């Protein structure tokens, strides 16, 4: 059985997209995700995206990291799915239904309303999440935000100077975060601009993270560091983030289809067994 896929990316945050509506798929689980995401022996990507029909929206989307873990939301993948669908679309995710609207300046996605309570992040115990009394090396006093995924945001003088490849996994796996955490280091450039790098739980350093851009923008807005609409620049490019008066976070940015192809499912299933 050959299975078709689409390779896509948003600002370099890349995905392999499988569509269950186009035909049968191999059993989708953590082991298959690890095989497909592998950049040396698989197709290679930051996340595996599985699209299917939905009873409550136009389409449903599941998201798997390279380590096999499944996450509730991904802003860049949402834009990629919207591009692939070819028009306005409502996408069912584990974080809720997200609405995406393609336009001349990119694809705008309503990412939902952010959550700030310690139970909603979640944390292992009660704590004020605006300026948290925590530090890991030189990173201190973060803000926690959940925008479908849990994020910790540190404001630093120079986000490029932070050894995120070392501190990221340490913070991600800290016992304070029972579901692990995404780690963001942000630099305020102006009232309408942030620079950002992100360590994604289960994926590591990526060129861009849509939910990370949303979380960091909202954290900066809550602290009064920026206005309610900002441009967030990541290593892979820029996203426009607005926190509207109705508390809805809207992300706008590009998505690109790289190529389409197919793979032989039986060969991957054999490797899937070894990866489990």
Element layout with pairings:
Elements: E1 2-10, E2 13-19, H1 30-37, E3 47-52, E4 59-64, E5 70-71, H2 75-85, E6 89-93, E7 96-103, E8 106-112, E9 135-136, E10 139-140, E11 143-146, E12 150-155, H3 164-172, E13 182-190, E14 193-200, E15 204-205, H4 210-222, E16 229-234, E17 237-243, E18 249-253, E19 256-264, H5 265-275
Parallel strand pairs: 2-3, 4-6, 12-13, 14-16
Antiparallel strand pairs: 1-2, 1-19, 3-4, 4-5, 6-7, 7-8, 8-18, 9-10, 11-12, 13-14, 14-15, 16-17, 17-18
Helix pairs in contact: 1-5
Describe this protein's structure.
With 276 residues, the protein is of the alpha+beta class. It has two domains: 2-105 and 255-275, Diaminopimelate Epimerase, Chain A, domain 1 (Roll), CATH 3.10.310; 114-247, Diaminopimelate Epimerase, Chain A, domain 1 (Roll). Helices cover 19% and strands 40% of the residues. The protein has helices at residues 30-37, 75-85, 164-172, 210-222, 265-275, and strands at residues 2-10, 13-19, 47-52, 59-64, 70-71, 89-93, 96-103, 106-112, 135-136, 139-140, 143-146, 150-155, 182-190, 193-200, 204-205, 229-234, 237-243, 249-253, 256-264. It has a 17-stranded mixed beta sheet that branches. Strands 9-10 form a two-stranded antiparallel ribbon. A hairpin with a 2-residue loop joins strand 13 and strand 14 (193-200). Helix 1 (30-37) packs across helix 5. The longest helix has 13 residues, at 210-222. The protein starts with a strand and ends with a helix. The model has no long low-confidence stretch (mean pLDDT 95).
